[in-house]
């Protein structure tokens, strides 16, 4: 089948304290997410969020429903965000085509029935990174480029965390029910993201790391502020961040990551900052 999926159940902080490296990676790391000619999905019980990909190479790929949704169509009760991290491609939504270049995004509203993914060149296929969350009403489909994004310049080279946050599928740019997505680009010479770290207990998050050289890695930090854990990650891998967990990373090279969120609120600034000197 062209669609593969797995289900991840939620874990509480007390349980995670006892996990070894293998168990932490099994619960939170989304490995080998970009598979040629497949749609790969992870359905997580954190806010019923779905993260995945569609990589059409030799054939177009159709978004099919999966059993956990108990729905005729994937987006009957859901909204979706798509960001292309590969070659040029097209997402067709109920017959309307949206061409997406590298680092361009698309919001697809609740109720879309026929969604297809295709590549302009099979030698340089599109790599569509997908996030989806439950939705209570339908909003218009909308393409968003980096030029359309709300840009935040954060950090500094002195603290090795100079970065540009591209807010793409967020309030003020796109109407959504709860899904928010964006892309953070680390500047040359910077390695740290999301520092100082924070927790937002009213929404969960998924990070997808890319633009990372194949011989380099990112150490992603998670856990409670006084009981942190880390996961070593490589190019085109994702990690699930529970609402109770910090989410930050340090790379052996600069990189880009896509963040996607869902939960109770749409206020990007609603977070509890964790002072660096209090981390353990």
Automatic annotation (TrEMBL):
Lineage: Bacteria, Pseudomonadati, Bacteroidota, Cytophagia, Cytophagales
SUPFAM superfamilies: RmlC-like cupins
Catalysed reaction, written as an equation: 5-dehydro-4-deoxy-D-glucuronate = 3-deoxy-D-glycero-2,5-hexodiulosonate
Purpose: Catalyzes the isomerization of 5-dehydro-4-deoxy-D-glucuronate to 3-deoxy-D-glycero-2,5-hexodiulosonate.
GO biological process: D-galacturonate catabolic process; D-glucuronate catabolic process; pectin catabolic process
UniProtKB keywords: Isomerase, Metal-binding, Zinc
UniProt-listed PANTHER family: 4-DEOXY-L-THREO-5-HEXOSULOSE-URONATE KETOL-ISOMERASE
Binding site for Zn(2+): 198, 200, 205, 247
Organism: Mangrovivirga cuniculi
HAMAP family the record matches: KduI (MF_00687)
Protein's name according to its UniProt entry: 4-deoxy-L-threo-5-hexosulose-uronate ketol-isomerase
Family, similarity comment: Belongs to the KduI family.
Annotated EC: 5.3.1.17
Cofactor comment: Binds 1 zinc ion per subunit.
Known pathway: Glycan metabolism; pectin degradation; 2-dehydro-3-deoxy-D-gluconate from pectin: step 4/5
């Amino acid at each position: 089948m062209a669609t593969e999926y797995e289900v991840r159940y939620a874990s509480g902080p007390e349980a995670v304290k006892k996990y070894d490296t293998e168990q932490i990676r099994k619960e939170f790391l989304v490995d080998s997410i970009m598979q040629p000619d497949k749609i790969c999905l992870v359905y997580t019980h954190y806010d019923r969020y779905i993260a995945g990909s569609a990589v059409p190479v030799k054939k177009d790929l159709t978004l099919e429903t999966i059993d956990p949704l108990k729905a005729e169509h994937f987006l009957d009760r859901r909204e979706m965000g798509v960001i292309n991290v590969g070659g040029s491609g097209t997402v067709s939504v109920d017959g309307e085509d949206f061409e997406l270049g590298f680092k361009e995004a698309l919001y697809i509203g609740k109720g879309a029935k026929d969604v297809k993914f295709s590549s302009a060149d099979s030698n340089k296929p599109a790599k569509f990174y997908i996030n989806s969350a439950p939705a209570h009403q339908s909003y218009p489909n909308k393409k968003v480029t980096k030029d359309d994004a709300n840009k935040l310049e954060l950090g500094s080279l002195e603290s090795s965390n100079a970065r540009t946050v591209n807010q793409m599928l967020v309030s003020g740019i796109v109407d959504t029910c709860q899904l928010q997505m964006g892309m953070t680009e680390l500047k040359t010479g910077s390695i740290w993201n999301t520092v100082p770290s924070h927790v937002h207990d009213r929404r969960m998050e998924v990070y997808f790391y890319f633009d990372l050289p194949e011989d380099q890695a990112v150490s992603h930090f998670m856990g409670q502020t006084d009981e942190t854990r880390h996961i070593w990650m490589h190019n085109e891998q994702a990690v699930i961040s529970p609402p109770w967990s910090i989410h930050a990373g340090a790379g052996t090279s600069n990189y880009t990551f896509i963040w996607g969120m869902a939960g109770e609120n749409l206020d990007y600034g609603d977070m509890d900052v964790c002072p660096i000197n209090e981390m353990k």
